From TrEMBL:
Pfam families in the record: OMP_b-brl_3
Subcellular compartments: Cell outer membrane
Protein name: Outer membrane protein beta-barrel domain-containing protein
First-listed, main subcellular location of the protein, grouped into a coarse class: membrane
Keyword line: Cell outer membrane, Membrane
GO terms under cellular component: cell outer membrane
Domain Outer membrane protein beta-barrel: 1-297
SUPFAM superfamilies: Porins (SSF56935)
Length: 330
């Protein structure tokens, strides 16, 4: 249920809203004889004030944003595929409630340009945490890294985001967008106080040029910083893609040649975990270089394209995170 009000005075616009959300989670995990039965309500306020000019505007806003735990974070199944690194979800996780203040400037004079500054904090942050346990029920006891999720500690961040779309000429276009965030984390796990901080961020760039004969060339590049969590961090990585496209049959048909990361055969992903008991370094290597041929044909207003299936639902209020695996030692 949602209700909002808007007030407008000349070039000023003020909005206030209040949203009531009810969440119900039910699950039966027969393999581990565990159930999830949660229900909770959240009252989410939002306020914004905008000052408009001829080709630009300023906007200040405050809102609360809820991030619900993902299914892998809730799943109590214990992954023992690697007996030295055991992981499991936590069916008792509660949603993470973030308080966010934002200040944005937008300009649409020639091309679009937007820059924003934000500050966000929460006191029940969902964190991936690890501890060392000794399995004494076997003939040769050994230490095992146990990884799971907990609502603990405080999470605050200060971020800057920029995005722009430039039409340099009728044939050449350029878009840039990215953000950088400074994160501070604090929390107590297994009686031990932890604190960590660091920078996270993403940056994307795209350049495209259209030729007169139906050819188009596009170059994409991106940078993804690693994650910062309470007990460690993961490594950053970059990607790039080159696409050559040709239109024919009166622009109804398109064929594209795609090269993703042609200069890099493998991608190395590293992560570190530091606890009161141990230090862990993990390394995973995945194939990175790919090539593809894509074909599409427009039938009336219907665009039927032969391509890889994609998910059609984007749950942007779900906390990120997949399997809570500890990884393999490197």
């Amino acid at each position: 249920m949602y209700n909002s009000y808007q007030f407008k005075f000349d070039k000023w616009t003020a909005k206030a809203g209040l949203r009531l959300e009810h969440t119900s989670i039910n699950g039966d995990f027969a393999t581990v004889n565990a159930t999830i039965n949660q229900g909770y309500n959240n009252l989410i306020p939002s306020v914004s004030i905008q000052r408009s000019f001829k080709t630009s505007s300023y906007n200040f806003g405050f809102t609360q944003r809820i991030q619900r735990p993902g299914i892998f974070q809730l799943n109590p199944f214990v992954d023992t595929s690697n007996p030295l690194f055991i992981s499991t979800g936590n069916p008792n996780l509660r949603p993470e409630l973030n308080n966010t203040f934002e200040l944005n400037y937008s300009n649409f004079a020639a091309s679009s340009f937007n820059i924003g500054l934000s500050y966000q904090f929460s006191n029940n942050s969902i964190q991936n945490v690890s501890s060392l346990r000794r399995d004494t029920a076997i003939i040769n006891p050994h230490d095992t890294t146990f990884t799971t999720y907990r609502n603990l500690g405080s999470n605050s961040s200060l971020g800057l985001n920029v995005n722009t779309n430039l039409n340099i000429t009728k044939k050449l276009s350029l878009s840039l967008n990215g953000f950088i965030t400074k994160i501070w984390l604090r929390g107590t796990y297994n009686g031990q106080f932890y604190q960590n901080s660091g920078f996270t961020g993403n940056a994307f760039a795209n350049a495209g040029y259209k030729f007169d004969n139906g050819f188009r060339i596009g170059i994409d590049a991106g940078f993804f910083s690693g994650d910062v969590n309470l007990q460690g961090h993961s490594s950053a990585f970059i990607y790039n893609s080159l696409v050559l496209t040709k239109e024919f049959l009166n622009k109804k048909a398109t064929i594209s040649l795609v090269a993703n990361n042609p200069e890099t055969k493998y991608h190395n992903n590293t992560s570190t975990t530091t606890t009161a008991q141990y230090y862990q370094y993990s390394l995973n290597q995945d194939p990175y270089r790919t090539f593809a041929v894509r074909f599409s044909y427009k039938i009336g207003k219907l665009n039927s394209e032969i391509k890889k299936n994609q998910h059609g639902i984007n749950n942007d209020d779900t906390k990120g995170g997949g399997k809570s695996g500890g990884g393999s030692g490197g």
